[in-house]
Request: fold
Amino acid sequence: MNVDDFRQMYVAELQELRSVEEQLIHALPRMSNMAQHPELKQGIMDHWEETRGQRERLDELLRRHHVNPREHQDSSMEAIISETKRWAHMVEDRDLRDAGLIASAQRVEHYEIAVYGTLAAWAKQLGLQDDLRVLLENLEEEKRADESLTVLAKKIINPEAASA
Ligand SMILES: [Fe+2]
Reply:
């Protein structure tokens, strides 16, 4: 697909974002399985549920733009996820691994927050109000997921990792 105007660029980026969510739907259960702490396992699976909803909402938007939701594959997220696996397999100690998993999960969230932020600004510029509402809704979920990971890391996971 040749991108030669702002709206096309917006839609292509929206397809990339859909691929981000799709990849996470596969990666998050694996991360939850690797986690030891029950609150971390549960936190990751709660966000997995949210992620499925996010992908649904993006699919709906993409259908309204009359494009194939699966056309683009986001290779930045592929790289982040493959680093997550590499790290988790390198760390034997389970308390340390939990701290590493949070680091990986927060990389994912920050990447998503960046992409949602850009797309929300583009949707606003293009006057796409329905898109903007959905993007801001997903963005809020990503921010909340990131904040709960921070709280969990500070309160429980990092202190346990430090005493491992
Ligand atoms: Fe997400």
